[in-house]
Amino acid sequence: MQSFILEACHLDQLIQAIRQHGFQLVGPRLQDGAILYCEITAADQLPRGWTDEQEKGRYRVRRREDDAFFGYNAGPHSWKKFLQQPRRPVWRAQKAAHAMQIEAVVEDAPAMAFLGVRSCELHAIAIQDRVFVDNRFRNESYAGRREKLFIAAVECATAAPTCFCTSMNTGPEVSLPADLVMTEVIHDTEHYFLIRAGSARGEDILHQIPVEAATARQLRQAAAAVERVRQQVEAGPRSFDSSDLKALLYRNFESPAWDQVAERCLSCANCTMACPTCFCSTVEDTTDLSGDHAERWERWDSCFTADFSHLTGGPVRADTRSRYRQWITHKLATWHDQFGTSGCVGCGRCIAWCPVGIDITEEVERVRRLEG
């Protein structure tokens, strides 16, 4: 697959070429004190020269010492909010004469393009594909949005202390299919993107922007930038052995570790809302005061909420201990049985956005330590 060079000063031409193909472009943008995924219409809306600092229960943006466009880490929102919508209508019913007319809500989903998708996030989208598209319980809302999606991925040139993608085999280099794959390189006075197409649509875009063939030196520079991130993550505080997670957690359903984490966990569901793979939802029915109109809505839910496992006799998981155990054991162990993969991609969002600083990697090591 041939790689090309796109000078940083021509990035806006890439953005306009994608938009001219009819895509609603979504990318990173500095907003409300965070780097969020929002609609983008021009390169000057990207967080050029900004990065973020992350640790347990902490997130801050700050200026970089260079003008990198993608020099940030995983933010508070993941791409799932554009594919698995946080809240959407399912059907509407209207009273007519002596009957109710029920009509399913059929979406006219826009064709979207994601700019700046990291490798861990590509893996997260692939995991949600297994849940919503490949599974026998197909979600047509998700599938319709996913089928039209154009992905411009970016290989990581920076990593936060909360990242552990190498432990989950999800990065930092892009290994899954994407329409375009980019690596941002800043070296001395040079600032460019190594770019390659991964689909016919990606090739069409490359034909419309000013690119030139990459030299061997430029290929080495891009590879070295990604390798630095790999070494940084592997030497980081969250790197751990994930090879036996499934068996470890299956052996420790009654570990005292669950009691210890329950003393801190607020059951606030922040971790599941920020997680790019958590997919739990519920439905709620509403009606107007006249009783003539009713609607059903699907919305995100969490295994941490008290009513999530409620059955006729009460909730199956009535305490925080059982809810946290359910979350981590499902994500790291039983997910393999259901979907053939782990449900964690090592993005670290659940660590940064936990208000009491619970760290999933520390909890895994706690289970391991208390077992011995």
TrEMBL record:
The keyword RNA-binding does not apply. Keywords: Iron, Iron-sulfur, Metal-binding. Residues 254-286, 335-363 form the 4Fe-4S ferredoxin-type domain. One of its GO terms (molecular function) is iron-sulfur cluster binding. It comes from the Bacteria. Signal peptide: none annotated. This is 4Fe-4S dicluster containing protein. The lineage of its organism: Bacteria, Pseudomonadati, Pseudomonadota, Gammaproteobacteria, Cellvibrionales.
